[in-house]
Amino acid sequence: MEQVYAYVAIACGMIISLGALAACFGISLMGGKYLEASARQPELMNDLQVKVFILAGLIDAAFIIGTGVSAWFAVSTFLK
Questions:
Q1: Which residue intervals define the domain V-ATPase proteolipid subunit C-like in the entry (predicted)?
Q2: Which of 39, 48, 50, 70 could form a disulfide with 12, with the two C-beta atoms 3.0–4.6 Å apart?
Q3: Given this model, what pLDDT does residue 66 score?
Q4: What share of the chain is helix, strand, coil (3-state, %, to 5)?
Q5: Domain extents in the chain
């Protein structure tokens, strides 16, 4: 049973770490593209800003869901 606990701990760590890495990478790419677009067309800056914040929330929501799923795995495994 200890081996199952170890595998669950490794899986939860990978879910959280890879989710955080992907979220950081996605937000950085999106922020860079936003800066490029606002430099080319400054009149669209306000419209693009709203879309950037919505997408940043969705990207972070995916990471938070992964954190919740990994916590669920950890708690359900250790309660048995």
A1: 10-70
A2: 70
A3: 92
A4: 95, 0, 5
A5: 2-78
- Residues with a known catalytic role: 60
Q: Encode 5-28: b = buried (16+ Cβ within 10 Å), e = exposed.
A: eeebeeebeebbeebeeebeebbe
Task: Give 2-78's CATH code, choosing from 3.40.50.150, 3.40.50.300, 1.20.20.10, 3.40.50.11540.
Answer: 1.20.20.10
Structural contact between residues 77 and 8, judged by C-beta atoms closer than 8 angstroms: yes
> Could you report the per-residue pLDDT of 23-57, keeping only the tens digit for each?
999 999 999 999 999 999 999 999 999 999 999 99
